[in-house]
Amino acid sequence: MRSVASSKDTVVSFPTQSKDQAPAFASVEHVSPRSASSDGAINILIVDDEPKNLTVLETVLSDPAYRLVKAESADQALLALLADQFALLILDIRMPGVTGIELAHMIKERKKTAQIPIIFLTAYYNEDQHVMEGYGAGAVDYLHKPVNPDILRSKVAIFAELYRMQREIRESNQALLAEVAERRHAQEQLRELNNTLEHRVTERTRALRASAALLQTATDNASVGLVTLDGDLRYTFANPAYCRIFGLQETIVGRSPAEALAPTYAQQMAPLLSRALAGERISCELSHPATPRPDGRFSHYSMVFEPERDGDGRIVGVVTVVFDITDRKQSEEHIRLLLREVNHRSKNMLSVVSAIARQTKAPSQDEFMKRFSDRIQALATSHDLLAESQWQSIAVSDLIRAQLAHFQDLIGRRIHLNGPPLKLSIGGAQCVGMVVHELATNAAKHGALSNQVGSVDITWQLKNQVGGERFVISWLERDGPPVMAPASRGYGSTVIKGMVELNLDGEVQLDFRPSGLSWCLACLATKILEKE
Amino acid sequence: MTKRVLIVEDDALLALDIAHQLSDAGFEVIGPATSVAKALRLVAESGCDVAVLDVNLGKETGAPVALELRARGTPFVVLSGYSSEQHPAAFHGAPFLAKPARPDVLVAMLRKSIGA
């Protein structure tokens, strides 16, 4: 039945629900691409080339739960489908250009839109061909125009519900997948953590084993004896060095010192162990004949007894350390002997100085002091030289030059040194040094060095002779003033003849020739030269 | 009668010094000997009435000489740079002078040993 149509009246006669009149030309509502569920409303696309029909549908389906998008052509519909996701499409079949069925085909071909349910609206009643076509196109339902609003609404509601359920399932699924992904990630992390932990444990174990091995090696190979005893003073650990020091053949772990060691040691150790167990740290020395050294002497040991404490500081046993101090003791003994020697030599030196003082003859006190201090100086010079060479030996030429220090500008001009590089022993050096000093002093006072033209030739050499190699050294003066033999034998002559002969088991020829004094010493090379 | 004194001392200068002192004091000096070997040879060859004996003769001690002199009943005076506790047993009991010894003291001790 047709009612009187105004320009805004709809063609379809059914009571409208909404007072709102849709505009005559419906355009695609422009929306920013969004999922259907951003505000919970679901999108429904309605396509009809008649705007009036669109308005009617819009009115019928007006619901806060639905967001209705209108399109008047296939093109507009496709555009709309690009922009949003739709729960349902309501298509008018009879459209100019691309029909609803053709549109449906297109929609079904696009993967994104293939699953959207389609309700075809057709004005043609009983057109089975269309029905078949429509179902072939994948439609879900057909409705004949004029559409019964209630039926339309209830069908739409069903599809809406379907869509919502699907959406919920999808969302649920996604949430589930996300949770699964999270779980998997957490598991991965756990596995990694486990691996790291295991790796660390392996590393630590290895480090621990290595340090335990190192400790084992150290205590096994140490020359320091190390033992531990428990609260009952029984051995809980003994390293090889300890067993070696005390000559122990079998293991002593579990036994007491009284059972394990020789009685003398056990008896001496017992009170010390008790004191250590009571908290005292004791150190003592032990001279030990049980392990004779290759040279047959005793070994000396230092022993330290200490309480062993647990992590809380309670005493749980005793630790004993034994180490060899034989070398130290020998050094101490050596130093003691050296000091004794130094004392002895000092006494000797004082005696020599005393002898020099006694034998230095001089007409006056001043002259005495001069000669005496000269001779002491000669002694000191020899000493200095020897000390510089670390009391090993001195080269002949070095010694002579040192004793001729006062005349050093004459060396090469009026004093000539000639001989191979030979080294004198300490005794030989002291002897020759004093002689050279006396000869030089004498030459300067009365001999070749007392005028402007005299000269001295000092020559030394090694001579191979029956009985062994001999060292020969001579002092020959020339062009000095006329020589006279000295009236009395004083210190000087004692030194250059008697002392030298006695000291070196040699022969001295001393000639006061008119042309110049001549002095010559010959002795076994072994007596005067450094020991190889 | 001139008494003969054997001097056993390894430092030649000291030995000669003692020789001079004792000679000046009227003794006849035998030696000096600077080693055990030399000393024992002189004892065997010449003999002596008294001896001045150093404990330390370089690397050896004068102990063998002391023993030989004791065996012969010859008195001797020990002259040493060491203290008496450090002397080998052979020297114990003999009169001892520490170096450096004053000549007059040494002479007196020698005369006393001979007289005893």
Name its key features.
heterodimer; A: 532 residues; alpha/beta; Rossmann fold; Beta-Lactamase; Heat Shock Protein 90; 3 domains; five-stranded parallel sheet; five-stranded antiparallel sheet; 14 helices; 17 strands; 45% helix; elongated; disordered N terminus; B: 116 residues; two-stranded antiparallel ribbon; 7 strands; 40% helix; globular
Describe this structure as you would to a colleague:
In chain A, strand 9 and strand 10 form a beta hairpin. Chain A has three domains: about 15-220, Rossmann fold (3-Layer(aba) Sandwich), CATH 3.40.50.2300; about 220-325, Beta-Lactamase, CATH 3.30.450; about 385-530, 2-Layer Sandwich (Heat Shock Protein 90), CATH 3.30.565.10. Chain A is α/β, with parallel strands linked by helices. The radius of gyration of chain A is 64 Å and the shape is elongated. Chain A has helices spanning about 50-60, 75-85, 100-110, 130-135, 150-220, 240-245, 255-260, 265-275, 325-360, 365-390, 395-405, 425-445, 490-505, 525-530, and strands at about 40-45, 65-70, 90, 120, 140-145, 225-230, 235-240, 280-290, 300-310, 315-325, 395, 415-420, 425, 455-465, 470-480, 505-515, 515-525. Chain B has a five-stranded parallel β-sheet, sandwiched between helices. A two-stranded antiparallel sheet of chain B has the order 4-5. In chain B, strand 1, helix 1 (about 10-25) and strand 2 form a beta-alpha-beta unit. In chain B, helix 2 packs parallel to helix 3 (about 65-70). Chain B has helices spanning about 10-25, 35-45, 65-70, 105-115; strands at about 5-10, 30-35, 50-55, 55, 60, 75-80, 95-100. Chain B starts with a strand and ends with a helix. Chain B has one domain (about 5-115): 3-Layer(aba) Sandwich (Rossmann fold). Chain B is globular, with a radius of gyration of 12 Å. Classes of the chains: A alpha/beta (about 525), B alpha/beta (about 120).
